[in-house]
Write a structure and sequence with these properties.
Blueprint: E1 3-11, E2 20-25, H1 33-43, E3 48-52, E4 59-64, E5 69-70, H2 74-88, E6 93-98, E7 101-108, E8 111-115, E9 123-125, H3 131-137, E10 150-153, E11 157-162, H4 166-171, E12 191-201, E13 207-216, E14 222-225, H5 229-241, E15 248-254, E16 262-268, E17 274-278, E18 280-289
Parallel strand pairs: 2-3, 4-6, 11-12, 13-15
Antiparallel strand pairs: 1-2, 1-18, 3-4, 4-5, 6-7, 7-8, 8-17, 9-10, 10-11, 12-13, 13-14, 15-16, 16-17
Amino acid sequence: MASYAFRLLNVFAPSTFGGNALCVFEDARGMDDATMLNLAAQFNLSETTFILPSSRAQARVRIFTPGHEMRFAGHPAIGTAQVLSELLGAGARLDVEFQAGIVPLVAEDGGWTFTAPCPDGVRTAPPQHSAGEIAALLGLRESDLLDAPLWVDTGADQLLVPVQDADAVRRARPDAARLEQWQPNSLGRRIAYVFALEPGTGPDGRRLATARYFYGKPGGGLEEDAGTGSACANLGGWLLHTGRPTPASVLVRQGDQKGRPCRLRLDVGADGRIRVGGAALQIGRGTVTL
């Protein structure tokens, strides 16, 4: 038998019991793919990460949901960076290898910030369904939409649904019985990121946005993610694609309706570089014996 150490963190957390929960295995050498997938299902969090050696970066990280492996995801990147910084005694910068490529992470503002892995630029595609059909699947009216929904990929492809205001975000009520009608992404996942840019700015001068992220669970049913860094990066891609002014700084508020408030910092440079940051709070650790 072998024992594997893990840590539990809350990412994008403004307080101890906020944020998006994450499990990080400190050293996954000796695990096969099935073991990683089974452990992700055992912990039943939105993602679990596994740290491995890398010949190209300071570490290689694999990300698993309870149903499949992901090329990249934001809150796992930030939470794993916090663990790696302690394990490696690293400074304020880490280069981490994900399936999507080498992602730089920098310690700043009491947390970590990643640069979206989209070296070839933001990829976009129109959805198969009409705007009205997508609004209806989300329990909204077509008049609630600010612009046409759009597939955006800055490391993970997701359907972005811009709506008129935060009230429309809060009113979204997707029907799990109609989940099979949703267009799947490249991994076969059915997902939608509903967001609204709000007037005015927050106390730090950032523009405010409210967002919710819905996805189909393995085996059926819908779930809402508390805080989604990859979708936040795709919001940056949407800003670029739609010609919004840059540089841009946004504070994204997500997870409040789940009782797990998350606060994500989005920065889009005039050069098109997209950066997402937030806090990572470690709340526990332990071992699993296999």
